[in-house]
Design goal:
Blueprint: E1 4-6, E2 9-15, H1 17-34, E3 41-46, H2 50-57, E4 65-75, E5 78-87, E6 97-105, H3 109-119, E7 125-133, E8 146-150, E9 156-157, E10 173-176
Parallel strand pairs: 3-4, 3-6, 6-7, 7-8
Antiparallel strand pairs: 1-2, 2-10, 4-5, 9-10
Helix pairs in contact: 1-2
């Protein structure tokens, strides 16, 4: 891994592809154990979670389904403070065990605004699985149930995370220099 440039910013290596893959394997094993015979529905939150959701779901062995919703709250390197739903959820969640898949829990605003929408459908349970969590940045009371990595409050790109749409395709995760 080497230093890279994304648009006008310089990023340094943070998490290798191997480190990410190993942690996803561990998260999937725990979810498989916790959800044996529970038929969960995984809901990936686009755009950022698509790589994490794909790699995680490939290792899920329990009977389950997956769907996606698109929520937007970032512009550039900062949260806009506004959450926009641009692709909605079509599945009926009544009585289902829901696992929300996020790329990163930063301030917690996106999920804190989206959770009431999910709760209205009266699922049996709702759990949050996030690849990254920034405890220092959390502004909304939110507890992730499955956390890949807790990271400092630095801006990161790669493995689905972006800077103005760029950098999502990187196999590794880089942090702003």
């Amino acid at each position: 891994m080497m230093t890279i440039h994304v648009l006008d910013k310089k990023f340094v290596p943070y998490l290798s592809a191997e480190t990410i893959a190993k942690r996803i394997e561990e998260l999937a094993a725990k979810i498989n154990e916790d959800y044996a015979d529970k038929n969960p529905i995984f809901i990936g939150i686009l755009n950022g979670s698509f790589m994490f959701a794909s790699d995680l779901y490939k290792q899920i062995s329990v009977s389950s389904t997956i769907s996606f919703i698109k929520l937007v709250s970032y512009k550039g390197t900062t949260s806009t403070g506004t959450v926009i739903t641009s692709i909605g959820l079509e599945e009926d969640l009544t009585g289902r065990n829901v696992i929300l898949i996020e790329d990163i829990v930063d301030t917690g605003k996106t999920l804190s605004e989206f959770l009431p929408t999910i709760q209205k459908q009266q699922p049996n349970s709702i759990k949050i699985c996030t690849l990254l969590q920034k405890p220092e940045a959390l502004l909304h009371p939110l507890e992730a149930d499955y956390v890949g990595f807790q990271i400092p409050n630095k801006f990161v790109v790669g493995f689905g995370l972006d800077y103005d749409g760029y950098g999502r395709n990187l196999k590794e995760i880089y942090q702003l220099e």
